[in-house]
Design brief:
By secondary structure, the protein is an alpha/beta fold. The protein is built from 35 helices and 32 strands. The strands form nine sheets. A six-stranded mixed beta sheet has the order 5-18-19-3-20-21, with helices on both faces. Strands 8-7-9-6-10-11 form a six-stranded antiparallel beta sheet. β16 and β17 form a beta hairpin. It starts with a strand and ends with a helix.
Length: 977
């Protein structure tokens, strides 16, 4: 069958959609936001493919798998096994990195385990492993030269640099007939040591059994005598290794029996120079400088064999931040300068604070910031090095509470750390909120123990390789493969091929700037999706239906070509590729386009046009076709707001250096619409979201935590606040709706409670809330639906039989406004509600704002967890417009066009211009070229990504950027000017 045939799809707002999707083609589904693209691609096509797969499992296996509802579709024929690649984050776990998610680290661990060279973490000497036979032969070669009578002692180092009394061990050796031992460098006869002899518990000790003393004579010995000497030496070495788990120490003596040379050997990987003070100190802290074998698990920070013991393989340690603990330094202690005291001590806090102030001689009204530094430090960090072994202290006699006293106190921060370790879960959560991550001082962020950190391949350690960007790592892997010597080919060639292949896939989808040790939780949705796309390319599957959700998000136009080639490569492997997309270049590269609409919500859900791009352009009713053909375009201002040096007020960040930013100084003109552009990974989000916004919040006293990574912030005096508008969900449950988020529901409840029937019954606004008892349906608790658990079958959602999905009880629904009950109102779209509430000024104004931002198709009672990211972001913008903030507010939008059709971007532009006209400043991080073309001012970062980015390439009106020879954005932007 050449097509995947969908018949009568009615999922969400789809209206009896029937469509044939060509197999083994690159198919793009497009249309305005809310037109039904995702409902068709993911909630119908992918959902049915996944359900059919799970249905084929046996009953036992299905009980452990997520159970999916059958989508509302008549039939689907010709469906292949399906794989969805969506925008959600890969893994939130701090243990997940780019290297682990892409499986590159798995192959690197094999490479380093089998072909790496281990070095001593102390002296960096190549480590060796030797069998007893190799040790004996090496000793004879090293010290058994002709004409010499070499005196030799063989020791078994059982205890090496560890604390303890070891009286039991000494008694055991005495019973085993061992006659001599060397304790901390001095040889003793065991019979001279009294039974029960104890060493100092406070000091580290080295205990070695004297296994043998022998003489190695020269070659004048006959063959039989030489063999006997070798055999005796071999027996001694074997016995020493048996006693000490593989270690042996051999000592060559002078004529006066003083040590002339020492040699440490092991059947494990061990340092040949082990035995000096530096090595002993290391062993005392970390254990043996040895490994049983070079196994792949040794290089895993998710395994106890390889993970750094200090940070448990996380690379960071969470420590209490004094700036977070002292939340309000401008306040006095009793007025809440340190809120955690009141939260932990409750009604005892006042007594405790009085005790502290008395002990330190501080007046009650003295703000924390005016405390003498010595007294503040003593209170926070303690004033003694003597550890106080104390559980949670009693509050009896609180005036004498020594934990926070003057001359001998533990300090608040150490106490909080102990409380986090020993206290209740509630205490732990409170205290952990005051912690910040710091790079582990032991592994310096490498996550591994010292030994695996010291193993190298081609003179490069594993952490060093993982710190490289994908582009540099790919070049390194290619160089390694070309430089393999014959002895390395068999072991290292195949792992290197796999590493190189996966790095190439990451590079091909525009992620060459990422490093392999980048935490997966810090990736954007687009980066995470492209990582999964690269992984699917590496899988090499064919006959699969891939469904992708806007893979171009977060991608600069310069990288889109690479993405399109990747999608085509996936198709050419024999797969069907269905992409939900708005990007023009991706649409034009498709073999087949399906345009849904014509509008959104109830006015969408139809196939407007399908076929090659030309047929979409020729369809007059297709909004997508009109924009592709050029008959409709986003408006570009005829006259931009002027930015005049010395006259236009500027918000300036000086000396930004975080991540890849190179001592960057940038200025945002206030009262304008400014766009920040540049390649993915050029430093846009770091500059704006990680430095500018936190710095401005601190300067405006909206946050007490000053960010790092910059020198100064100027020009903020005229700003009143900063507002971030992102695409995070506005609610995660069906109880949250657009009307509740916007505050519109409060006005609706007030309106209905003021009506005559409500007044007669004495019903207040609470009667018309579906979240509280009284007016809601108690059968479904105001949800309008009930969930029925069906065991191994998926849970079934059924309309509530009592209220029939209306959420309210019958009495509440007797109150009407313009013939509409409160349940009828929640079922209205915004556009329909505008007519119903035309006489209600406040409600009408709020609804009008929703319509202006392009959300006229949403129903007032739609569950917030069903909204897309673009819809959530526009709803937040609508909320800001409704509030009508005074003063000059800085609005920061991070890629607001994600998930938006050209028509929706037009609505967004209208909102942005309204905000600027109202006297505010709008700063947008964006890749959408037509939105950038409408900006007053553009700051273009680059010139490349990662290490090649972090600089201000060009700034000025869009026309200036388009003409800049250094800007990669310029040539693409010029097409729209």
């Amino acid at each position: 069958m050449d097509f995947i045939r969908i018949m009568d799809a009615n999922t969400h707002n789809l209206q009896q959609v029937s469509v044939d999707i060509p197999r083994n083609k690159l198919v793009v589904m497009t249309g305005v936001s809310g037109s039904g693209k995702s409902s068709l691609a993911f909630d119908t096509l992918f959902a049915e493919g996944q359900r059919r797969y799970l249905e084929r499992l046996n009953t036992y296996a299905r009980q452990f798998m997520p159970q999916n509802d059958r989508p509302d579709v008549g039939s689907i024929e010709g469906l292949s096994p399906t794989v969805a690649i969506q925008q959600k984050t890969v893994h939130a776990s701090p243990r997940s990195t780019v290297g682990t998610v892409t499986e590159i680290l798995d192959y690197l661990r094999v490479l380093y385990a089998r072909a790496g060279t281990a070095h001593c973490p102390v002296c960096q000497t190549a480590m060796q492993s030797q069998s007893p036979q190799q040790v004996a032969d090496a000793v004879l070669h090293r010290w058994g030269k002709e004409g010499m009578n070499t005196k030799l002692q063989v020791f078994s180092p059982v205890i090496r640099g560890r604390k303890g009394t070891y009286n039991t061990l000494l008694d055991q050796w005495r019973k085993e007939g061992i006659s001599r031992v060397r304790i901390d460098g001095t040889i003793h006869l065991l019979e001279d040591l009294p039974e029960g002899h104890r060493l100092s518990r406070q000091h580290a000790h080295t205990l070695e059994i004297v296994v043998d003393r022998l003489v190695l004579k020269g070659s004048e010995l006959d063959a039989e005598a030489a063999e006997k000497t070798r055999q005796r030496l071999l027996d001694a070495v074997q016995k020493a290794m048996t006693q000490s788990d593989g270690f042996v120490t051999l000592e060559k003596l002078n004529d006066d029996l003083t040590p002339a040379d020492v040699w440490h050997c092991s059947r494990h990987l061990a340092c040949p120079f082990e035995g000096n003070e530096e090595h002993d100190a290391y062993i005392q802290l970390h254990g043996d400088i040895a490994a049983d074998e070079m196994a792949p698990r040794l290089f895993s920070f998710n395994s106890p064999y390889g993970a750094c013991t200090a940070c448990d393989g996380l690379g960071v340690k969470w420590q209490l931040d004094a700036d977070r603990v002292v939340a309000y330094p401008q306040r006095a202690l009793e007025s809440g300068a340190i809120p955690i005291i009141g939260r932990l001590l409750g009604r005892y806090a006042e007594t405790f604070i009085g005790s502290v102030l008395k002990q330190h001689g501080i007046k009650k009204q003295t703000p924390w910031e005016e405390w003498p530094a010595t007294k503040a430090n003593a209170f926070l960090f303690g004033s003694t090095k003597t550890p106080i072994d104390r559980k949670t202290p009693s509050l009896e006699g609180v005036d004498e509470w020594p934990l926070f006293g003057g001359s001998d106190s533990e300090g608040l921060l150490p106490f909080l750390q102990r409380r986090a370790d020993e206290g209740s879960d509630t205490d732990c959560r409170l205290i952990e909120s005051l912690m910040t991550p710091t790079v582990c001082a032991e592994c310096h962020g490498d996550r591994l123990k010292p030994l695996p950190r010291s193993v190298s391949f081609m003179s490069t350690t594993l952490p060093t390789f993982c710190r490289q960007s994908v582009t540099h790592a790919l070049a390194t892997a290619q160089r390694w493969r070309s430089e393999l010597v014959p002895s390395q080919q068999l072991i290292a060639y195949q792992p290197l091929v796999e590493v190189e292949k996966r790095l190439q896939f990451l590079h091909s989808v525009g992620l060459g700037y990422l490093t392999l040790d980048r935490r997966a939780g810090t990736l954007s949705g687009g980066e995470a999706q492209r990582i999964r796309l690269a992984s699917q390319l590496g899988a090499g599957l064919c006959g699969v239906l891939y469904v992708l959700d806007e893979p171009s998000i977060g991608l600069h136009a310069h990288n889109t070509t690479q993405l399109i080639e990747t999608l085509q490569q996936l198709r050419d492997q024999g797969n069907s590729v269905v992409v939900v997309e708005h990007d023009e270049d991706t649409i034009r590269a498709a073999d087949w386009v399906i345009d849904l609409g014509p509008l959104a919500g109830r006015l969408g859900g139809h196939i407007v046009a399908e076929g090659p791009v030309k047929s979409i352009e020729d369809e007059a009713t297709s909004l997508t076709g009109q924009y592709l053909k050029g008959s409709k375009r986003l408006p570009i201002p005829k006259q931009r707001r002027p930015v005049v040096k010395g006259e236009t007020p500027m918000l300036t960040v000086l000396g930004a250096t975080r991540h890849n930013l190179k001592n960057l100084t940038v200025s945002v003109p206030l009262g304008t619409f400014t766009a920040v552009t540049g390649l993915s990974g050029s430093g846009k989000s770091t500059l704006i979201m990680d430095i500018l916004v936190p710095a401005l919040r601190h300067a405006l006293k909206e946050s007490h935590l000053p960010p790092d990574g910059y020198e100064n912030l100027t020009g903020f005096e005229s700003l009143t606040s900063v507002v971030e508008v992102d695409q995070s969900p506005i609610g995660r449950t069906p109880r949250s709706t657009p009307s509740t988020y916007l505050g519109l529901m409060d006005d609706l409840r007030l309106l209905f409670s003021s009506l005559e029937r409500s007044q007669i019954n004495g019903w207040g606004p609470g009667r018309f809330s579906f979240n509280t008892r009284g007016g809601r349906c108690e059968t479904c608790k105001g949800l309008g639906a009930e969930t029925i658990a069906l065991g191994i079958l998926p849970d079934a959602q059924t309309t509530c039989g009592t209220c029939l999905g209306k959420r309210y009880n019958a009495d509440t629904l007797t109150v009407t406004y313009n013939s509409h009950t409160i349940a009828d109102v929640l079922a209205l779209t915004v556009d329909e509600a505008l007519v119903v509430f035309e006489a209600q000024t406040k409600i009408h104004r709020q609804l009008l704002v929703l319509a202006d931002v392009g959300l006229g198709y949403l129903t007032l009672g739609q569950a917030a967890n069903t909204l897309s990211g673009g819809e959530a972001q526009r709803l937040k913008l609508a909320s800001e417009l409704v509030q009508q903030r005074r003063g000059n507010v800085l609005y920061v939008l991070d890629e607001p066009t994600v998930g938006l059709h050209w028509e929706d971007v037009g609505h967004l532009l209208t909102v942005i211009q309204r905000l600027v006209e109202a006297g505010h400043t709008v700063l947008v991080i964006e890749h959408h070229l037509e939105l950038i073309a409408a900006a007053d001012w553009v700051m273009d970062l680059g010139p490349g990504a990662g290490e090649a980015g972090g600089e201000l390439v060009a700034q000025g009106p869009p026309e200036v950027i388009a003409q800049s020879p250094q800007s990669l954005t310029g040539p693409y932007l010029g097409r729209y000017l």
